[in-house]
């Protein structure tokens, strides 16, 4: 039995005991008082009537009239006059009229009052003995009214007491429920914090649990920062802090092979011309600071555009990867403004900052893209210190000529239905965790991958419509196959509170499918829009669906900020996975990431796995699942 039920039971029992005790004492006291009063009344009336008879002539008619007059003036059950030999001289008797009272009450009370007796004298001789018994019906009715009034007043007092008890129990229940919820969260390794209640005992418990959560968060923060420092040493340029060449190329390859919004976008390359001359003129420290400022400016542009990545390809060349960005002229204008600001800030030397831009799409080859950019950058350098060129990308089929055509085609395709691809995510025992299901739309008679239409989905602000269509397709797929399905949600949809409510209503109407649905978002979106992500978790997790992050790596040092969200899984970016079987540094990073994930009850899944040796090593490091082009169900590593 719960504590709240025990409290209510205790309160009700105490009220009943108080009521029964009060009623018993009240009725008993009144009964005793009434019996005493009736006894005195019987004795006094008997003596008074006997005295009157003693002073009168003992004429039978006179005696009869006197007794009749006494009987008619009071509530008497019996008035009797007997001679000394026991013969009845005169008698008046009636039955008790208590039919309007409950029989159980009469039996329970049952007055036991002896009749009053007195001697009637005839001179010096005893004439007879007078017996007088009062009627008890009025006493029963009086006691019944008193008991009912007492019960009524007690009912009112009991109702008021119950209301007060309800308020008191409610003030105890709310913080108690918070303590229970926090204890359950800690039990599943969600280290939440709660507001301290006013109740001292509960406050001490909450303080201890909050201290535990704070300690765990601090520990996670410290460990994630250590891992992030190791990752930066492995993947980042020590001078500028941006990705080095190998890490940047790994991100570019991952984007070109992606089935999501990263599959198409823009590439930009910027060169600090005449680096040797600048170094001689400004000195090494100032040149390094200048390179860092250039990298920071490109990084800021990437963040403004959303999801941009900056890499240092060599001593003087920097590259910027912008997924989903399509207007090269607008991007080139923003880039030129930032480069001009850098040139104007440096007064000690004339800086050459030529740039080149190129769009990319799913299936392009990284080396070909960089070669095209390098050639365009050489042409831009020939134009002057702020020269800029837009490289000619690979010839691609243009599905539709205008925005209106794209909008109409996308609406029609989503109305016809979304096709979901199926790529398995397996654990170490080759069991299916879920299927990754990227969306396909039928455009111009063919099922097109997400890289073709997602840029236009974002440009035309159709993200929420597409995500709801994908969610409906996933629910239908789960109903047909009975297998768990993972789908991606766009950052734009999460920022739309209406979408979250619509998705919640959809999942609530399909509770069985919701329990097999895995929802994932990019790591950067969750970190930089933490309020929206918390709202999503709060609305959807009670329905049973699992929420996780994909492409985890660059922001892993912020994992402590997510310790109380109850995430189900993290998918670690393939830039940390590729070649893990030959890199001790990567093995150290991934082992630490898996340990931290497990400390929070989160599954650690590796993305982009394409070799059996990588799969074997990842499971040895403690990861829970793998996915990628090299992962097929029933293909166990030897």
Automatic annotation (TrEMBL):
Keywords: Membrane, Transmembrane, Transmembrane helix. Residues 263-393 form the GGDEF domain. The chain crosses the membrane at residues 6-27, 150-169. It holds the Pfam family GGDEF. The keyword Lipoprotein does not apply. Residues 170-221 form the HAMP domain. Residues 399-638 form the EAL domain. InterPro entries: Cyclic-di-GMP_PDE-like, EAL_dom, EAL_sf, GGDEF_dom, HAMP_dom, LapD_MoxY_N, LapD_MoxY_peri_C, Nucleotide_cyclase. PANTHER family: CYCLIC DI-GMP PHOSPHODIESTERASE PDEB (PTHR33121:SF23), CYCLIC DI-GMP PHOSPHODIESTERASE PDEF (PTHR33121). This is EAL domain-containing protein.
């Amino acid at each position: 039995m719960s504590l709240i039920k025990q409290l209510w039971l205790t309160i009700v029992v105490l009220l009943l005991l108080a009521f029964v005790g009060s009623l018993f004492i009240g009725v008993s006291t009144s009964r005793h008082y009434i019996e005493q009063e009736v006894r005195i009344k019987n004795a006094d009336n008997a003596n008074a009537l006997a005295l009157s008879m003693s002073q009168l002539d003992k004429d039978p008619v006179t005696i009869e009239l006197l007794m009749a007059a006494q009987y008619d003036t009071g509530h008497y059950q019996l008035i009797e006059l007997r001679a000394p030999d026991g013969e009845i001289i005169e008698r008046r008797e009636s039955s008790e009229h208590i039919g309007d009272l409950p029989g159980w009450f009469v039996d329970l009370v049952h007055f036991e009052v002896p009749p009053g007796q007195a001697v009637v004298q005839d001179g010096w001789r005893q004439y007879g003995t007078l017996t007088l018994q009062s009627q008890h019906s009025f006493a029963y009715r009086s006691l019944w009214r008193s008991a009912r009034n007492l019960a009524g007043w007690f009912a009112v007092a009991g109702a008021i007491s119950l209301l007060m008890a309800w308020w008191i129990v409610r003030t105890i229940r709310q913080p108690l429920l918070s303590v229970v919820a926090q204890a359950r969260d800690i039990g599943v390794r969600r280290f939440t914090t709660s507001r301290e209640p006013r109740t001292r005992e509960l406050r001490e418990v909450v303080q201890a649990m909050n201290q535990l959560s704070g300690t765990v968060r601090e520990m996670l923060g410290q460990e994630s920062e250590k891992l992030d420092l190791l990752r930066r040493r492995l993947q980042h340029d020590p001078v500028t802090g941006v990705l080095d060449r190998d890490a940047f190329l790994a991100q570019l390859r991952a984007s070109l092979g992606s089935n999501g919004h990263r599959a198409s976008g823009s590439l930009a390359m910027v060169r600090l011309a005449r680096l040797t001359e600048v170094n001689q003129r400004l000195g090494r420290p100032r040149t390094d600071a200048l390179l860092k400022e250039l990298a920071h400016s490109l990084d800021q542009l990437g963040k403004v555009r959303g999801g941009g990545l900056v890499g240092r390809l060599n001593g003087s060349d920097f590259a910027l990867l912008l997924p989903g960005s399509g207007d090269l002229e607008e991007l080139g204008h923003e880039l030129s403004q930032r480069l001009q600001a850098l040139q104007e800030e440096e007064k000690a030397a004339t800086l050459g900052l030529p740039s080149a831009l190129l769009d990319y799409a799913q299936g392009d080859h990284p080396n070909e893209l960089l070669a095209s950019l390098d050639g365009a950058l050489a042409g831009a350098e020939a134009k002057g210190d702020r020269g800029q060129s837009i490289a000619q990308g690979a010839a691609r089929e243009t599905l539709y000529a205008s925005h209106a055509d794209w909008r109409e085609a996308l609406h029609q395709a989503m109305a016809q239905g979304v096709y979901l691809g199926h790529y398995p995510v397996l654990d170490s025992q080759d069991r299916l965790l879920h299927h990754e299901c990227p969306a396909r739309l039928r455009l111009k008679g063919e099922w097109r991958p997400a890289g073709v239409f997602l840029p236009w989905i974002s440009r035309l602000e159709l993200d929420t419509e597409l995500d709801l269509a994908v969610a409906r397709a996933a629910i239908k797929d789960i109903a047909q196959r009975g297998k768990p399905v993972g789908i991606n949600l766009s950052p734009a949809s999460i920022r739309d509170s209406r979408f979250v409510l619509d998705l919640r209503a959809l999942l609530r109407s399909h509770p069985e499918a919701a329990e097999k649905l895995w929802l994932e978002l990019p790591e950067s979106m969750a970190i930089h829009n933490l309020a929206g992500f918390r709202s999503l978790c709060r609305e959807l997790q009670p329905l049973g669906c699992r929420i996780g992050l994909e492409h985890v790596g660059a922001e892993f040092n912020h994992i402590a900020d997510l310790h109380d969200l109850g995430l189900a899984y993290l998918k670690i970016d393939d830039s940390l996975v590729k070649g893990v079987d030959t890199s001790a540094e990567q093995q150290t990073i991934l082992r630490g990431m898996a340990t931290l994930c497990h400390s929070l009850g989160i599954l650690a899944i590796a993305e982009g796995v394409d070799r059996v040796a990588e799969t074997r090593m990842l499971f040895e490091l403690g990861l829970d699942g793998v996915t990628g082009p090299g992962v097929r169900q029933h293909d166990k590593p030897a």
